[in-house]
């Protein structure tokens, strides 16, 4: 029987649950941090970061710092939320202000977060009672 928080799930089902949790959190934070009015469910992994956090609008330079800050904040908020939920203390290992280069699509953010945190969450296993939902 499947239970909330991965208890009773096999490893593959748990991995899928973690991936879904990370993706939903990314979609939520993108919809909050983007200056565009976007439905979180419209955000796809193929979505360009620059389309949601543009550095140019209509060919004109447009608040690059603000959008870069919002994009970086979105990534940080996802990271922090997952660390809090799973009682982990892991640092992001990329240089700030490089988000657009490292993560040109929202899917790139997902792959980064999952590769760093998802594996750690999965390794915590089902016996961890400290998970906060």
Describe the fold and architecture.
The protein is mainly alpha-helical and 133 residues long. It has one domain. It is 54% helix and 3% strand. The protein has a two-stranded antiparallel sheet with strand order 1-2. β1 (56-57) and β2 (60-61) form a beta hairpin. α1 runs antiparallel to α3 and α1 (11-33) crosses α5. The longest helix is centred in the N-terminal third of the chain and has 23 residues, at 11-33. The protein is globular. The mean pLDDT is 84.
Major sheet size, sense and barrel closure = 2 strands, antiparallel
Order of helices and strands: HHEEHHH
Radius of gyration: 16 Å
| Beta fraction | under 5%
Number of domains: 1
Task: Briefly note the structural class of the backbone.
Answer: mainly alpha
Through-space gap between termini = 19 Å
- Number of beta-strand segments: 2
Query: Average pLDDT, to the nearest integer?
Result: 84
Low-confidence stretches: none
Shape: globular
């Amino acid at each position: 029987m499947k239970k909330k928080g991965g208890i009773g799930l096999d490893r593959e089902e748990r991995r899928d649950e973690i991936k879904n949790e990370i993706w939903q959190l990314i979609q939520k934070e993108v919809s909050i941090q983007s200056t565009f009015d976007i439905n979180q469910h419209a955000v796809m992994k193929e979505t360009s970061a620059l389309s949601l956090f543009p550095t140019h609008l209509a060919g004109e330079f447009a608040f690059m710092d603000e959008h870069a800050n919002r994009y970086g904040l979105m990534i940080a908020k996802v990271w922090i939320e997952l660390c809090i939920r799973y009682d982990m203390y892991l640092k992001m290992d990329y240089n700030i202000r490089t988000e657009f280069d490292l993560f040109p699509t929202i899917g790139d953010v997902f792959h980064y977060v999952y590769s760093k945190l998802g594996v750690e969450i999965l390794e915590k296993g089902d016996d961890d009672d400290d998970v906060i939902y």
